[in-house]
């Protein structure tokens, strides 16, 4: 099993950019404000399952579609499944209950197909899965991580790929410190044998729209990557271990930081942004302004900073909930209460029996709806052996994409800008009026 390093993985953004983060996290753990291990959630669990599925398929030569609507252990057995998950993952996720839905299959298939294709294009290359890279000797600290897939080419090319199952945050390939760190680890570990010249660092993130597509890479020469290690990683680790490391808040480092909900520097910066941006807006003491009373510039400032302030508010909320639930603090204005689910049957068979006795013609079942296009494709592939392109072509013949409305998107969004409908209608009205 791969060793977990305190400096590595998705927290790389944090420790590389905020020297004071490690000491803040350690102090928060010591004070009992946050647990020692980051608690997982639904999304991290989904990511773990998807990674396991990808690794199993690549390692055992299976197709993600072989798992459609089945559990992983039902296909490869419980013992083998346990080989692909570490102890804490096995404690938290019951794979005997987790069905491989089309969401898993379609996303993981893109990853698996890409890695297989690259491996075969790079003739004579070696594919390593979950290869552990340690930079402990390089930086003199607990630094490193496991790369999802490393393809070691014999012609001087190394490719390191990282699969991202999440769809909440778009992960960029250029300058990505996590893949760079793995690339650096791979050079340190394998360069003597392979003599690499170029490193391709790839992000595969199938569930998020990106103008460059689901698979995006940056390519660096070995020299450039080694320079990055020397000028960025080494000094950052040195600063982390200095006596009074500075807290440097910023969007990316705070987003992934474990103390973002309790960190003063992060709070001050979020408030400063809010105050600076909204300082010209005259708000009554206890009421927020009605949207229609804002000028368009004020509204623009609020909408463009919405995400940043929301993130901070969510981080504070998550911190407060964890702290109160753990019993370490009490808040005067809040209390813990039971969460109650929606109504559910105690025993489905009993109610069906009773209703049938009362109304023999009654059908208690909600007829299943037709499968979604994505589910239909997966189903055709899994049950009838269709190739991905064939299944897509067949299903696409019966599909259409209809406009369901318009949305406000940041100017950097890849979609084409459209004219406001009112403006178009108004123009037609003026034309007709002539
Ligand atoms: S929340 Fe931001 S500023 Fe605070 S320790 Fe973490 S990364 Fe640094």
How would you sum up this structure, described in words?
This protein has 434 residues and is α+β, with helices and mostly antiparallel strands. It folds into two domains: 9-240, Lambda Exonuclease, Chain A; 251-325, no CATH class. It is 48% helix and 9% strand. The protein contains 17 helices and five strands. The chain has helices spanning 12-17, 21-30, 42-60, 72-76, 78-83, 87-92, 102-121, 136-139, 177-194, 222-240, 251-255, 264-278, 296-325, 348-358, 373-384, 388-396, 421-433; strands at 126-134, 144-152, 157-163, 198-204, 215-221. Strands 1-2-3-4-5 form a five-stranded mixed beta sheet. Helix 3 packs across helix 7. The protein is globular and about 80 Å long. The structure holds iron/sulfur cluster (SF4).
What is the compact description of this entry?
Helix content is 48%, strand content 9%. With 434 residues, it is α+β, with helices and mostly antiparallel strands.
CATH architecture of the largest domain: Alpha-Beta Complex
Largest sheet: 5 strands, mixed
Order of helices and strands: HHHHHHHEHEEHEEHHHHHHHH
Q: Classify the fold: give the CATH topology of the largest domain.
A: Lambda Exonuclease, Chain A
> Which value, in Å, is the CA radius of gyration?
26 Å
> Could you name the CATH class of the largest domain?
Alpha Beta
What ions, cofactors and ligands are bound? Answer: iron/sulfur cluster
- Helix/strand-derived category reads alpha+beta
* Uncertain residue ranges: none
List the strand order in the largest sheet. 1-2-3-4-5
Relative strand content: 5-15%
């Amino acid at each position: 099993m791969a060793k977990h390093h305190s400096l590595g993985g998705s927290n790389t953004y944090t420790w590389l950019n905020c020297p004071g983060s490690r000491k803040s996290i350690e102090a928060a753990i010591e004070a009992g404000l946050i647990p020692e291990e980051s608690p997982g959630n639904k999304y991290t669990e989904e990511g773990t399952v998807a990674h396991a599925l990808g690794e199993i398929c690549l390692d055992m030569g299976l197709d993600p579609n072989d798992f459609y609507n089945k559990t992983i252990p039902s296909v490869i057995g419980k013992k083998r499944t346990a080989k692909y998950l570490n102890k804490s993952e096995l404690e938290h996720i019951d794979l005997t209950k987790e069905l491989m839905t089309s969401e898993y299959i379609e996303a993981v298939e893109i990853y698996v197909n890409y890695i297989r294709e690259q491996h075969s294009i790079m003739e004579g290359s070696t594919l390593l899965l979950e290869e552990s890279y340690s930079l402990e000797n390089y930086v003199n600290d607990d630094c490193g991580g496991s790369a999802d897939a490393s393809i070691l080419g014999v012609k001087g090319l190394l490719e390191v790929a990282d699969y991202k199952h999440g769809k909440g945050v778009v992960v960029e390939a250029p300058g990505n410190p996590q893949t760079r760190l793995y690339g650096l680890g791979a050079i340190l570990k394998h360069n003597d044998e392979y003599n690499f010249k170029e490193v391709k660092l790839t992000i595969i993130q199938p569930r998020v729209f990106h103008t460059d597509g689901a698979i995006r890479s940056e390519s660096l020469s070995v020299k450039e990557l080694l320079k990055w290690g020397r000028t960025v990683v080494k000094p950052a680790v040195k600063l982390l271990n200095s006596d009074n490391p500075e807290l440097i808040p910023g969007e990316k480092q705070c987003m992934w930081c474990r103390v973002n909900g309790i960190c003063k520097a992060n709070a001050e910066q979020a408030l400063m942004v809010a105050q600076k941006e909204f300082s010209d807006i005259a708000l009554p003491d206890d009421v927020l302004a009605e949207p229609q009373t804002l000028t368009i510039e004020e509204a623009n400032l609020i909408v463009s900073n919405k995400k940043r302030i929301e993130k901070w508010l969510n981080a504070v909320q998550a911190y407060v909930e964890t702290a109160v639930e753990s019993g370490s603090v009490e808040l005067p204005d809040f209390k813990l209460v039971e969460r109650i689910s929606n109504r559910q049957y105690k025993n489905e068979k009993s109610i069906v029996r009773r209703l049938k006795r009362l109304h023999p013609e009654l059908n208690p079942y909600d007829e299943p709806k037709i499968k979604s296009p994505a589910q239909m494709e997966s189903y055709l592939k899994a049950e009838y052996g269709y190739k991905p392109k064939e299944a897509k072509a067949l299903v696409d013949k019966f599909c259409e994409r209809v406009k369901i409305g318009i949305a406000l998107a940041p100017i950097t969004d890849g979609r084409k800008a459209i004219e406001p409908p009112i403006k178009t209608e108004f123009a037609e009205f003026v034309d007709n009026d002539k």
